[in-house]
Design brief:
heterodimer; A: about 280 residues; mainly alpha; B: about 300 residues; alpha/beta; 6-stranded mixed sheet; 4-stranded antiparallel sheet; 10 helices; globular
């Protein structure tokens, strides 16, 4: 057959799940490389930070309260404290949330706006099956990035004598994964319900910023404090899991929010009128 | 055998003016059915309702004997769809795109897809991003035909195709007809549906204006003829010819409106030396005039 060669095998084109990941393979490779590179860099700083840890701690004690809240109970003399401040306060959650929101917003709203959703849904597959695949692909990608982070710390850390307790570190990694899933799922839900990517990105990242601020300022602003319980960041970091290990209830709350957003998306997608 | 498509009282309101109002028609199995109307008349709305992308405000649509809402998955399995607008995945090649949709359909006979690609002269190894509009349309056509569906629902299928490819497309529709499969195709150009279809529904501003056999339509069709003679013609030249109206003489050229057969006109003109004869394709407005006499404000 002359044309046989032009119709490729395409193992990654068998399902919506694998095709969605295939679309992301280059982007994911860059994200992973950047993430691993940043961790290598931070690991290489550890020996000099440890030498001056007392000065860092002194500096911390002078910070205003909200910045202390932001950083958590950090002790620069321990590898865990260093990792918490450099990785888990800002870098890791930001990366996974930003990636998650992008993936969630693309899932349905992105296809709809690009005009490719009609043909995708013209095949004999239920809408909910398409959404399950898209959600699973987002989960897979966020999990992959989390795993890259975990391996990078475990592999690069010891090169610079940065050795963390695996239990607490793994717990914090899991929470970061769940935090990415929370905002990714919110973006997916909003995008599926509205069909608009910009709305999905706007709502999800707006919520991320707002709940971050609530959780950070809560301890120093009395009236705000009760609202911390509404912030995913509270369940992400409260109780210092890197030292104290996983709080299963907190992890379940994060997972529950993600699942609830996804279930809402399933419900909304079945009822949606798709824009051409 | 039940109808391939049966639409009853189908209404889709969007609040504003778009949408369709109380459509009722059916398409028999094995029929090539044209859905004719100007852009914005509601053709795409109807089609996307048949495929359950949007849901009727009132009324029902039955496709291949199945309810469009409840049984959409089975309908999709047995139907090939060509969207009027929208896009393919830019980052896949044409071949990868077909592979993806085929996998989601549970596999197709690749000889059919490859054969179609060859007929349409479509290079499947190029990324869709790099394809012209016409070539994208070819890929979209292949995916609609490749699983040899019982029903083809094609929204403006020849948009952007060059004439040679259009010919090939016409041949593909002919084959589908010969095999007893059904085609529902929308268009805003009369000659295309006239050539391909057995019956035509005409839709305007969301309402069904008429459903006609192509033969009947042709009999009632209005044409504008322009005939140039060697010498200035007499204005009463066509007085005895049936269906003639709006005669205008301008020097050696005469312009007339002819309803139905043009045989009488041609024979009357043939008594003089004819230099040129032009028949203008009737515009959709002309066709509506056929149905309304005057501006189309009589409801369906």
């Amino acid at each position: 057959m002359a044309h046989e060669a032009t119709i490729p095998r395409g193992a990654m084109l068998r399902t919506v799940f694998s095709k969605t990941l295939r679309d992301q393979r280059k982007a994911l490779a860059w994200w992973a490389a950047g993430f691993a590179g940043a961790i290598l860099l931070y690991s290489s700083f550890w020996p000099s930070v440890r030498e001056n840890a007392e000065q860092f701690n002194e500096y911390l004690r002078k910070l205003p309260d909200f910045l202390k809240n932001l950083l958590g109970q950090i002790d620069y003399t321990t590898p865990e404290g260093y990792l918490q401040s450099e990785l888990f306060v800002f870098l890791a959650p930001t990366l996974l949330i930003v990636y998650g929101i992008g993936a969630g917003a693309r899932a349905v709203a992105g296809e709809e706006e690009a005009g490719s959703l009609d043909l995708l849904l013209s095949v004999p597959i239920r809408r909910r099956r398409v959404l399950v695949d898209k959600f699973a692909a987002m989960l897979g990608a966020i999990f992959l990035l989390t795993t890259v982070m975990w391996i990078s710390v475990v592999a690069f850390g010891p090169l610079f004598d940065l050795r963390v307790g695996l239990g607490g570190f793994t717990a914090m990694s899991l929470n970061t994964f769940l935090l990415g899933m929370v905002f990714g799922s919110l973006a997916l839900a909003v995008g599926t319900a509205t069909g608009r990517r910009s709305v999905a990105i706007g709502v999800a990242s707006g919520l991320a910023v707002a709940t971050f601020i609530v959780n950070t300022l809560g301890p120093s602003v009395d009236w705000l404090d009760p609202f911390r319980l509404l912030s995913p960041f509270y369940y992400y970091a409260d109780g210092n899991p890197i030292l104290n290990g996983l709080d299963p209830v907190h992890a379940l709350v994060l997972a529950g929010v993600s699942v609830a957003a996804f279930v809402y998306a399933l419900w909304a997608f079945e009822r949606r009128e798709l824009t051409a | 055998m039940s109808d391939a498509i049966a639409v009853e009282g189908l209404t889709k309101s969007y609040g504003s003016t778009r949408g369709v109002i109380d459509l009722t028609f059916s398409v028999g199995p094995g029929e090539v059915f044209g859905y004719l109307g100007p852009n914005g008349a509601g053709k795409t709305t109807t089609i996307r309702t048949l495929l359950d992308f949007i849901r009727p405000t009132r009324g029902t649509a039955t496709v291949l004997g199945r309810d469009s809402r409840r049984d959409s998955v089975e309908i999709h399995r047995r139907t090939g769809y060509l969207p009027g607008e929208g896009s393919l995945y830019e980052r896949l090649t044409g071949g990868e795109y077909l592979r993806y949709l085929a996998e989601l359909r549970g596999g197709v006979d690749w000889r059919v897809a490859a054969g179609l690609a060859e007929r349409l002269d479509c290079d499947l190894s190029v990324k869709i991003r790099g394809l012209s509009h016409g070539n994208r349309q070819k890929v979209a056509l292949i995916q609609a035909f490749m699983h040899r569906p019982e029903l083809l629902v094609l929204d403006e299928p020849t948009q952007g195709l060059d004439p040679l490819v259009q010919q090939e497309f016409h041949a593909m529709v002919e084959e589908v007809r010969r095999e007893g499969r059904t085609v529902f195709l929308s268009s805003h150009v009369m000659p295309e549906v006239e050539r391909l279809c057995d019956r035509i529904a005409i839709i305007r501003e969301g309402r069904l204006v008429a459903v006609e056999e192509v033969g009947d339509l042709r009999e009632r069709q209005v044409r504008m003829l322009e005939i140039r003679f060697a010498e200035p013609p007499r204005p009463d030249l066509f007085d005895g010819s049936p269906g003639v109206s709006d005669v205008a003489v301008n020097g050696d050229t005469i312009r007339i409106r002819v309803a139905g057969s043009i045989d009488g006109v041609v024979k009357a003109a043939a008594r003089f030396e004819v230099v040129d004869l032009m028949s203008h394709e009737p515009s959709l407005e002309d066709i509506f005039l056929t149905y309304y006499g005057k501006e189309g404000d009589r409801g369906a």
